[in-house]
Amino acid sequence: MTTEQPPLRAVIADDQALVRTGFKMILAADGIDVTAEAADGAEAVAAVRRTRPDVVLMDIRMPEMDGIEATRRIVGDAGPDGTRVIILTTYDLDHYVYAALTAGASGFLLKDVTPEHLVYALRLVRTGDALLAPTITRRLIERFAHHEEPQTLAPHRDLSGLTPRELEVLRLLATGLSNAELASRLFLSPTTVKSHVGRILSKLDLRDRVQAVVFAYETGLIAPGGGA
Q1: Domain 9-131 listed as CATH 3.40.50.2300
Q2: pLDDT at 226 over 60
Q3: Strand partners, 57
Q4: Which tens digits make up the pLDDT trace of 17-40?
Q5: How confident is the model over 34-62, as a mean pLDDT?
Q6: Could you give the residue range(s) of every CATH 1.10.10.10 domain in the chain?
C-alpha cells in the first residue's frame, strides 16, 4: 500500500505582481499550493518561516533584501530536509545567480521557462534533488568561481575524507554528468553511483549536486575548462 504524497507547497517571491500572478496560475493549475507571495526578500523569509513550504521560487533583484540574502537565511533555517530555493533569473550567466547558488539555492530557472518545465522543476527539487542544467550551470560556475570573493563552501571543508573513488565521482559530477552517465563512465551500477554521490554530499556537508559542483571548482578539484 502506497501513501499518497501531500500537495507540493510553494512560496513565490518577486517584486513584480504580474510575474507572481502568472506563476501562481501555472502552479495552481497543476495542483501546487501557493502558500504565500512575497514582494521582497524580507517578506520571503517571513513567509517561509510562517508557512513552511517545500520550495521557494526566488527572484534575485528585489528591494529591502535581495534574493541572495533571502536564500542564505532560508537555507540556514531549513536544515537538510527543509525548504528548497529555485532562483528566477532573466540572464543565465550572471554573477548574482552564481552567488545565489553558493548561498544554497538548488538551481535556477530563466523567467521565460515553459509551464511544464516550471512544474517539473518544483517537483524535482522537492524530492531533494538539484535542478542542475549541466551545460549552463557549468558555464556559469566556470565564469565566476575564480573571479569572486571566496565563498562559503570551500574554506570549511576538507577533501581528505573522500576515498579515491569518491574523488573520481566528484570530479566527473562537476563536469555535469548525470548518475546514469557516471555509471556508464565508471562501469558501475546507477545504484552504486547514487550511493557514492550520497556519501560525498554527507561527508562534505553539502545539500545537493549544485553545491557539489560549486565546491569542486572552488577547491580547485576541477579547473575552468577542465573536461571529463
Answers
A1: yes
A2: no
A3: 12, 86
A4: 999 999 999 999 999 999 999 999
A5: 95
A6: 159-218
Q: How far is CA 187 from CA 67, 169, 180, 183, 190, in A?
A: 41, 12, 10, 6, 9
Residue whose C-alpha cell reads 527572484 in the numeric block:
59
> Is 1.10.10.10 the CATH classification of the domain at 159-218?
yes
Residue 146 pLDDT grade (very low, low, confident, very high; cuts 50, 70, 90) = low
Length of the chain, please?
Answer: 228
Residue 165 neighbours by CB distance under 10 Å: 14
Decide if 140 contacts 91 (C-beta within 8 A).
no
pLDDT of residue 1: 46
In order, the DSSP letters of the chain are: -PPPPPPPEEEEE-S-HHHHHHHHHHHHHTT-EEEEEESSHHHHHHHHHHH--SEEEEESS-SSS-HHHHHHHHHHHH-TTS-EEEEEES-SS-HHHHHHHHTT--BEEETT--HHHHHHHHHHHHTT--B--HHHHHHHHHHHTTTS---SSSTT--GGGS-HHHHHHHHHHHTT--HHHHHHHHT--HHHHHHHHHHHHHHHT-SSHHHHHHHHHHTTSS-TT---
Find the mean pLDDT for residues 163-170.
Answer: 93
